[in-house]
Design brief:
Length: about 100
């Protein structure tokens, strides 16, 4: 029961305090809220831009990794062809002697 009375008293004090704010104080609070809303909108926009950049960079990284894999595969094939040509060349030079 005592807690309930205390809660009612706290609510009454807050309500009285808020209603006692003058129009100048209310306007200052409105301006602060508007400023905070602008800051939030800017931060949200920056986060969205960052996420878009991240997606773009992830796509670029995937493409670079795919290109790298292809180049490694091509390199291995070329090394194999070189080895086969060297073997073939060394086999033909020994036959000529």
């Amino acid at each position: 029961m005592l807690r309930r009375v205390a809660m009612i008293a706290v609510i009454a004090v807050l309500a009285t305090g808020l209603s006692a704010c003058g129009s100048k104080e209310k306007e200052e609070l409105r301006q602060k809220v508007a400023n905070l809303e602008q800051q939030l909108a800017k931060a949200t926009s920056q986060v969205a831009e960052g996420e878009a950049k991240l997606v773009s960079m992830e796509q670029s990284l995937k493409q670079a990794n795919d290109d790298n894999s292809k180049l490694k595969s091509d390199n291995a094939k070329l090394k194999s062809e070189i080895a086969a040509l060297k073997k073939k060349k060394s086999g033909t030079t020994t036959k000529k002697k």
